[in-house]
Amino acid sequence: MKVLVINCGSSSIKYELFDMDREDVLAKGLVERIGSDRSILTHRVTDREPWVETAEILDHRQGLNKVLALLVDRESGVLQSVEEVAAVGHRVVHGGESFSESVRIDADVVRAIQENVDLAPLHNPPNLSGIHAARHHLPHAEHVAVFDTAFHQTMPDYAYLYALPRVLYNKHKVRRYGFHGTSHQYVSQQAAALLEQPLETLKLISCHIGNGASCTAIQDGKSVDTSMGMTPLEGLMMGTRCGDIDPAIVPFVMAKEELTLGEVTSMMNKHSGLIGVSGLSSDMREIVEGTFEGNKQAKLALQMYTYRLRKTIGAYAASMDGVDAIIFTAGVGENASLVREWTCRALTYLGVELDKEKNAHLPRGPQVISTPESKVKVLVIPTDEELMIARETKRLVESAL
Ligand SMILES: Nc1ncnc2c1ncn2[C@@H]1O[C@H](COP(=O)(O)OP(=O)(O)O)[C@@H](O)[C@H]1O
Ligand SMILES: CC(=O)OP(=O)(O)O
Ligand SMILES: [Mg+2]
């Protein structure tokens, strides 16, 4: 069964085509800067040079049309016809309380995703554009939605409620939802396999640190707490997002700087975090380089980033009354050894002992980077949200047969 996975951002489409009979990746790629006359399409097929094309791509429908054309093209293609795509798996960021599992997409599901737009104004509208475009171009295929929020629907109420008047939850569903659930779930399963222990017996803390960053406490294979909240702005310090701040700062800054609510929201989402503190970059590679070169602001940003991650790990060890393993994943977690080292260096009270050599010289694939004596294991596990979405899509399509 061939499954196409689509992850639509506000100005991008990430895609990956799988042959699910053997979980082979046939092709994958990225359309960037949608809405401009200089959109960039990068298309990769195993063992071939990548295709890079600049073109005017005005919306997601046009972008997806280009992708499908490349997939059936004589040179760049891997399919005879788009009819071969049996199913499409869509990443949907906010499922609200409506979805605790992946679902096959029908008119009711589209309506429910639409109803959650208010809760994720940056993420859900492009996700919906992707669904509309894919259903238009691939009407024969089954379409499945896999939600970032679904894995976190197991959190207890005392973890997901805010200490606000109850009416806000009753009327508007103001609560913690949590995100990156597909990734947290995937790496927790991989961790259990690596440790050769049943997932149901483990207390895990998973740190998904990429552009967006979140930390999740996982007990018995279930999410019991997570650092992102009603929106993906809460929690850890990120590339461009501030994470936790005193909420009273918002009206204070609005008054002092004469900013609108929209401007402060944009400041917190796009101009804060690593870029806001360092003034250098939102990219951890440049922050690490800057730190080595003696840039004080870059070093401060890195200290803040790792200090806050460490505090959250401590909090989740407390909330689960212990932890068996800490997992690092996503762009920063998988690649930045300095971030892992600084985060772990004051976790000795928990019994964490990092193997510095292993941490610095990491082979590919899932790895243990703690010493054999370490009471708490530290793991690096490459995430694969696309594979997880493809598996979910196949499972749902087959269960409907
Ligand atoms: N070698 C590296 N060292 C440090 N950071 C890295 C490295 N490679 C990638 N990153 C970081 O990973 C981030 C992207 O993570 P990723 O999980 O791909 O994000 P997203 O899926 O949210 O776009 C980049 O912004 C960069 O900061
Ligand atoms: C939910 C979220 O923050 O996603 P991303 O990390 O892809 O921005
Ligand atoms: Mg990501």
UniProtKB/TrEMBL annotation:
GO terms for molecular function: acetate kinase activity. The keyword Hydrolase does not apply. ATP binds at K14, H208, I209, G210, N211, G212, D283, M284, R285, G331, V332, G333, E334, N335. Mg(2+) binds at N7, E385. PROSITE patterns: ACETATE_KINASE_1. Substrate binds at R91. InterPro entries: Ac/propionate_kinase, Aliphatic_acid_kin_short-chain, Aliphatic_acid_kinase_CS, ATPase_NBD. Pathway: Metabolic intermediate biosynthesis; acetyl-CoA biosynthesis; acetyl-CoA from acetate: step 1/2. HAMAP family: Acetate_kinase. This is Acetate kinase.
